[in-house]
């Protein structure tokens, strides 16, 4: 992982419904990673907008987003972790600390737990 590298990791289940064919099984599970935008840039609040206590906050909406990204019908999804390096996590914590009121919280740790639960996995390269 290069510096400032992070991704939101989800377990998704999708269904195939091919026209003119029958398949078995018709459901499959896979891991989907969505790159995390650099803190302070457009889209960096994905965790705040999509997650709550380490779970997907609005699963139907997220399934539509995942279906669009994958090009198949996603029928179930679960958040697994924010997989990150130290540089990204430091930048994320700094961006959160700079605007705690935005998160209605008293500390960075409270914000991280509020949205990501205990699902932050720091990897070293």
Written account of the structure:
Helix 3 (86-97) packs across helix 4 (108-116). It is elongated and about 55 Å long. The longest helix has 12 residues, at 59-70. Strand 3 and strand 4 form a beta hairpin. The mean pLDDT is 94. The protein is of the alpha+beta class. It has one domain (6-116). The strands form two sheets. The protein has a four-stranded mixed sheet with strand order 2-1-5-6. It has helices at residues 46-50, 59-70, 86-97, 108-116; strands at 6-15, 27-35, 51-52, 55-56, 73-84, 120-122.
Q: What is the count of β-strands?
A: 6
Q: What value does the Rg take, in angstroms?
A: 16 Å
Task: Quote the average pLDDT.
Answer: 94
Residues in β-strands, percent: 25-35%
How far is it from the N-terminal to the C-terminal residue, by CA? 5 Å
Number of helices: 4
Order of helices and strands: EEHEEHEHHE
Helicity, in percent?
Answer: 25-40%
- Oligomer state of the chains in this structure: single chain
The largest sheet, given as strand count, sense and whether it forms a barrel, is: 4 strands, mixed
Contiguous uncertain segments of 5+ residues: none
Q: Which class of secondary structure composition applies to the elements?
A: alpha+beta
**Whole-number total of structural domains:** 1
> Order of strands in the sheet with the most strands?
2-1-5-6
| Morphology | elongated
